[in-house]
Amino acid sequence: MTDLAVIILTHNEERHIQRAITSVRALSNEIFIIDSGSIDRTIELASALGATVLHNPWVNYAVQFQWALDNAPITANWVMRLDADEVIEPDLVARIAEELPTLPAEVTGVNLKRKHIFMGRFIRHGGRYPLVLLRLWRRGFGRIEQRWMDEHMILEGGTTVTFEGGFSDVNLNDLSFFTEKHNKYATREAVDVLNQRYDLFSRDEALSTESTSVQASTKRFLKERLYNRLPLWTGPLFYFLYRYFIQLGFLDGREGLIYHFLQGFWYRFLVGAKVLELDRAIRDLPGRDERRLELTRLTGLRLG
Q1: What is the pLDDT of residues 129-175, one digit of tens each?
Q2: In this structure, is residue 72 part of a structural domain?
Q3: Residue 4 and residue 27 in contact, taking contact as beta carbons nearer than 8 Å
Q4: Of 111, 124, 188, nearest in space to 152 by CA
Q5: Hey, is 55 helix, strand or coil?
Q6: pTM above the 0.70 mark?
Q7: 86 close to 114: Cβ distance less than 8 angstroms
Q8: Domain end among 84, 101, 121
């Protein structure tokens, strides 16, 4: 067992929580579930597997995870972020158990290579594999980026290494769940775009190649400096064509066509449409406070 604490955020995750906990149970000596009001068997199942369950009201993912870092009684030297629908596969478990204790003191973070399983198929193309994410860090060196969408772990000091091995995002819910979830994601991402445009509340600017993976930092730079400035139809269309043809997404078969179209075109178009709709509602208001209050009313989000 490695000196490792795992943090998992949950809300009605009975379909996934046993699988997630089981995948890291032999690896970690502390597992913390931060629940935001589940009404299914999530808490019962997690407790039965020995996890410590804490409760905190939901604002957004970033606020919830930072609350966990600040309030969970973590004693382990290393901390892992794991989503409820993610799995650490046996080869990566073995790699972490063997190599994590041997890392030199200057290494304070570990990147993992996540793969996405959609409708039972491994999506290998379209720029979706590998997604290199900072998911392991020495206690006291990591925090989560405070954003409404696309939040990353931020390393404060030290260097990173990357571990090879199976790390999978495997959500077992159906397409209705997928589209409903991405509809909510689109609202949150639109808020981040409008915050960048109007400076409505403080923006976390700590993401860099030193604080997280180079891949994540580069994608953020391209999205905020280039993509978000394109016309409504241009960005989604060319992004989908780039993913599907240039990055060979068509090799992912029928499941890949569904995934790349929904996530690479429909979702991106929906974000742009929501930015347009919300911008029209707030742009003529007299000041920052008025815009923020109206955006709060329209989205139902607890904006700071």
Answers
A1: 999 999 999 999 999 999 999 999 999 999 999 999 999 999 999 99
A2: yes
A3: yes
A4: 111
A5: strand
A6: yes
A7: yes
A8: 84
